[in-house]
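Entry 14: structure prediction run for Cytidyltransferase-like domain-containing protein. Input pasted below.
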Amino acid sequence: MKTKRSVMCFGTFDIIHPGHVKFLAAARALGDELLVVVSRDDRRAALSGAMPVHTQRERIAVLDGLKSVTRAIAGKKNDILVVVRQHRPDIIALGHDQVYGISALQKWCEQQKNPPRVIRLRAFNR
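Run finished. Output tokens:
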């Protein structure tokens, strides 16, 4: 019997700003626990053309210090589904502009008997 509702979200979270804090608080409000998957440095560089200002380890440490975050973990290389399958969240909270890995996530959810609920959150002002 699962007693706590878990929420998972993904992001780079390089240089945390008020929009990030509001997004994470809204994601946490969807459940009892919030697991934040922090993108790898090389993934950030591949998607944006630049390395992050802070290393993945530093970004995880900052996120772990936020009240809304139960735990921050390192993302896996090239596949967000690895952590989804491993942690089996009840809800996946997506950012308003999040596109990486979404089509694979949607296809995977369609194949599951009890998929996580996927919720796209609105944009939050900085």
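Notes: Helices lie at 18-28, 41-48, 56-64, 81-87, 102-110. Will compare against the previous run tomorrow.
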